Amino acid sequence: MTSPMAARVAVTNSNGGRLSQPTDGCGQAPAVGSNDTPRHAPYMPRPDVAARSWVQDVLAHNGPIYLRIVNSLERTVRRGGLAPGHRLPSQRALAQQLGVDLTTVTRAFDEARKRGLIEARGPQGSFIAPPKAGFDQRVDLSMNLPPVPDADGLAEMLRRGAAAVLTRSNAPNLMTYHLGGGNPTDRHAAVRWMQPMLGAVHDACLVLTEGAQVALAAILVSQGRDGDAILCDTLVYPGLLQAAAALGRRLLPVDSDEHGMCPEALARQARDSGSRLVYLNPTCQNPTALTLPLQRRQALARVLEREDLLALEDDPYWHLAEDAPTPLAALAPDHVFYIATLSKVISPGLRTAFVHCPSAAHAEAMTAALRATRLMGHPLVSALASQLLLDGSAQALLAQVRSEARERTRMARYLLAPSLLVRAEGLHAWCRVPSPWTDAALVRTAQLQGLAIAPSSAFCPPSVVHQQGVRLSLGLATDRRQLESALRRIDRLLLSDALPAIER
Ligand SMILES: Cc1ncc(COP(=O)(O)O)c(C=O)c1O
Predict the structure, then answer these.
(1) Residue bearing the CA closest to ligand 1, atom 4
(2) Best of 232, 233, 236, 343 to mutate for ligand 1, by most ligand atoms within 8 A of CB?
(3) Residues whose CB falls within 8 Å of the CB of residue 439, separated by 6 or more in sequence, listed in order
(4) Taking Cα atoms as reference points, which of 280, 322, 319, 316 lies closest to residue 409?
(5) What is the pTM of this model?
(6) Do 98 and 57 meet the contact criterion of CB atoms below 8 Å apart?
(7) Is pLDDT of 399 > 60?
């Protein structure tokens, strides 16, 4: 018999997002919202994920076998690949399958029971245990961070990377001043990382920084002065708001439509204001999750060239988008600072971003601004980031992050009501806030329930009339079960008839 979770079909929701519906087991998708099928049927992982063998996972890791068995079980349960009530093979069968002693498997099952992962049911065998009640568990949906699908693997990658750096480098050289925009090895790593996005990467145009935020501030310092205006979207990444405020720059929002910033509005605003700089975050925009289609990018690139503008293309989510279109930097290379941080696809802890400047002169001006504010980067951290990029471990981690992030955005599209969800892509979902809620009331009420979310006010340039919306970050929940429960709670809160208690 086919289980309901074994067969799923893809349909398109009103947001244009693809979502997966449980079927009746015969390939028929029940009508969404029909009486016999609640919209909130349990979210199930994709069959390929569910069926991924945790036993194979044991063989793929290092360390004592009994711990590898427990860790693999834990990882698979966290990913949602083994549901509560799933019966495990007998200890004898598992020992045979893995080619190990029965005592090793018994030790592993004892440890798994202690961790609350499995429960023994006498002669029936061992089963995946129900989740522990999560009383008072705070869930953070307020920060865009890449999910960590395999914490053990991450720790191992860092250990190996750091060991390789210390073995291969000259320690005194790492501990001295480095005043340029990155040493040759770092630049080589940068070229390797940026080539898939940009095609041609020119060494003289490259600058390495400690993350995108540092890059944005350095570009603003090197390309303008107090009181200048920067053109931008009506909702923008809060770090740009902070940098602009600290440096005395005015933000001028440009009109947009469903495809993003309007090219003609950009040209008009540039002429009217005299501004030469425009900030764009064109892939999985923070916070709206919008990705500008190629045609819109081409039209904007033509405006940059015609009006002789410079764009700051902040593109941290490019690797996470489905079919990410060509960056503007590849369409109008002489007019774009392209900023590619590792923060959203590998880890913000590596504090590494690569910037491709419009020319060598722009790169030199930016490097001078960096020197004025922080003298130099962190050679040890840069060396670790370069090592991970050049030995391929960063790309392997990226593949895991991308697959987990896509599964999580898929969950958001399925679990959040179409009347609330505007878009989910990359690491976040953007939702409208229905009346009588305001985003501030929703954020406070959610906080009382242990859920942290980000209000639209956090993304508004000073002159913008505040829109009601919230951003839900999907990467920081410890696992999919926690995320599922948090998304259901937000959904229930917004759709409940109760007036926001806090406002009454
Ligand atoms: C669009 C955008 N740019 C930059 C950043 C920050 O990147 P970094 O950690 O490299 O400074 C973020 C983080 O949320 C972001 O969403």
Answers:
(1) 212
(2) 343
(3) 433, 455, 456, 457, 468, 469, 470
(4) 322
(5) 0.77
(6) no
(7) yes
